[in-house]
Design brief:
This protein has ten helices and 15 strands. It is α+β, with helices and mostly antiparallel strands. The chain has three domains: 166 residues, no CATH class; 64 residues, no CATH class; 148 residues, 2-Layer Sandwich (Heat Shock Protein 90). The strands form four sheets. The chain has a five-stranded mixed β-sheet. Strands 2-1-4-3 form a four-stranded antiparallel β-sheet. A four-stranded antiparallel β-sheet has the order 6-5-8-7. A hairpin with a 5-residue loop joins strand 1 and strand 2. Helix 8 packs across helix 9. The chain is rod-shaped, with a radius of gyration of 52 Å.
Length: 499
């Protein structure tokens, strides 16, 4: 019992130590992953704040452009009014300043048409385009749709105008800046997957660091947005020309892989340790078997000499007309020793299984053991199938029966009832041996068969271990505790191949 308990304590200690190592590894890996996640979230927050500031800058630029556009419209109106004064014969004002103001315009393109829609004048057209009718017609279409014309009914003229070339170039650059700004919104996101949506949080505007196949359908997009929303709350921003928008983001792929890395690492280490344990366990069992076989054969060899002497002394006593009852019992013990020697000699070799009547084998074992046990133990054989035969090796199987009977008698403390039941079940030959002893706790039903486990002060803890080896390995059967209750006894069950 002490040997087995020490082994169990060491196993528990090593298991707890391994769990501590695994727990520490997982904790440290999660700690690093949390640190990286916090850093990524901080980067996304800082990046979002930078977006807000850039959005404010773009909005300020838009307001500035709107002011410039308003100023240019006023200027265009003034130019048109000046032109009206010049073309009105009834107006006798000083026209020098007005003429200088009109011709000082070098940026705003102007087309002047009469009431018959014929071109009567132009200003600030590109060089070489002043007489290009195709260009002038296309420009007329653009100017007509751009701003409403200024009409002078006195002379029947209409003045069409557009933003200045400088302003148009600035506006084009602003549009390019806004488009690139939206692209950078989802590209500079600290390698985290990012989705930019409109105010409804349903329509996707931009996507960055994410596989397009995950957003192929509206259902997939909705599922991805919900997944990101559960992981991190979306960030609300105001973008120029877009209104309210939302940024959805999640942990980067590198961070997710980092979280799974310790798990895969532990699995690989676990598989390696398991394979190593199985290999070393196989080698250890093979060495133990070699030691076991060597000890068994040496024991059989050592028993041979005194057994031969006992046989000679028995023959001598028989010639001297000794008490026949004494000689009968002495010959039984000599035969028993011969059986034991045969048992040890068969260890390590494949035993020969023969078809044997199971009830007869049990009865023979009981007949030998009954007079050598306490008279207060009642032996009973209940053969429900008297003709049932099984494939077994009689000497080795008798060894199993002897171990079970001795353990049962010890459990009953020399007083009680021992019952053996023989029957067939599911094509197997079954033997159940029940005693009325103190029973075995349920948590020890499997450990009783382990080497070194014993409840006796002088026991080696090898009897039931040997019994399981003989039944499982040599007879291809099964032995286990069928039932047991404290204070009511134990039933061992042996299942063999029925003949």
């Amino acid at each position: 019992m002490n040997l087995y308990s020490n082994k169990q304590r060491w196993k528990i200690f090593l298991f707890l130590l391994a769990m501590c190592i695994v727990g520490a590894t997982l904790w440290y890996s999660n700690y690093i992953a949390d640190r990286i996640r916090d850093e990524e979230h901080k980067k996304v927050q800082l990046w979002s704040e930078a977006i807000r500031q850039r959005a404010d800058l773009v909005r300020f630029t838009e307001r500035l452009f709107e002011q410039l556009r308003s100023e240019e419209r006023k200027r265009a109106n003034l130019l048109a009014k000046g032109y009206g004064i010049l073309t009105d014969p009834s107006d006798q004002s000083d026209l020098t300043f007005i003429t200088d103001f009109i011709w000082s315009n070098t940026t705003i393109p102007i087309l002047i048409y009469d009431d018959r829609n014929a071109l009567v004048g132009s200003a600030n057209l590109p060089e070489g385009k002043e007489t290009d009718t195709t260009y002038i017609d296309s420009l007329y279409t653009v100017l007509r749709d751009r701003y409403p014309p200024i009409v002078f009914p006195e002379v029947g003229h209409k003045v069409y105008y557009n933003d200045s070339y400088l302003f148009a170039e600035l506006q084009s650059n602003l549009d390019t800046l806004i488009n690139t700004f939206l692209s950078e919104t989802v590209m500079n996101s600290a390698s985290a997957p990012v989705l930019l949506t409109d105010a409804s949080q349903q329509r996707l505007l931009r996507a960055g660091n994410i596989d397009s196949l995950e957003l192929a359908t509206p259902t997939q997009l909705s599922h991805k947005l919900e997944q990101m929303r559960r992981e991190n709350p979306p960030i609300e921003i105001e973008l120029p020309g877009q209104g309210r928008n939302y940024i959805f983001y999640e942990d980067s792929r590198v961070l997710k892989q980092l979280k799974l890395f310790p798990v895969f690492q532990l699995i690989l280490v676990g598989v390696f340790l398991l394979v190593s344990y199985l290999i070393f366990s196989t080698f250890r069992k093979a060495e133990q078997n070699q030691v076991w076989v060597g000890m068994a054969k040496e024991t059989a060899h050592q028993l041979g000499t005194p057994l031969s002497s006992l046989m000679a002394w028995s023959s001598l006593l028989e010639t001297q007309l000794a008490d026949k009852n004494v000689l009968t019992e002495l010959n039984k013990d000599i035969e028993r020793l011969n059986t034991i020697t045969e048992r040890f000699s068969k260890i390590g070799s494949v035993p020969e299984l023969q078809e044997e009547n199971l009830s007869d084998v049990v009865q023979q074992a009981f007949d030998y053991l009954r007079p050598r046990m306490s008279r207060s133990v009642e032996f009973r054989l209940d053969p429900k199938d008297p003709g049932l035969s099984a494939w077994l090796n009689r000497p080795l199987f008798g060894w199993v029966l002897e171990n079970l009977v001795r353990n049962a008698v010890d459990a009953m403390e020399g007083s009680g009832q021992l019952t053996a039941t023989v029957f067939e079940e599911a094509g197997k030959a079954v033997l159940e041996i029940s005693d009325s002893g103190k029973g075995v706790p349920k948590n020890q039903w499997k450990t009783v068969f382990k080497p070194g486990f014993t409840t006796k002060r002088r026991g080696w803890g090898l009897g039931l271990s040997l019994a399981r080896r003989i039944i499982d390995q040599y007879h291809e059967g099964h032995i286990f505790i069928r039932r047991s209750e404290p204070g009511k006894g134990t039933t061992f069950r042996i299942e063999l191949r029925a003949a």
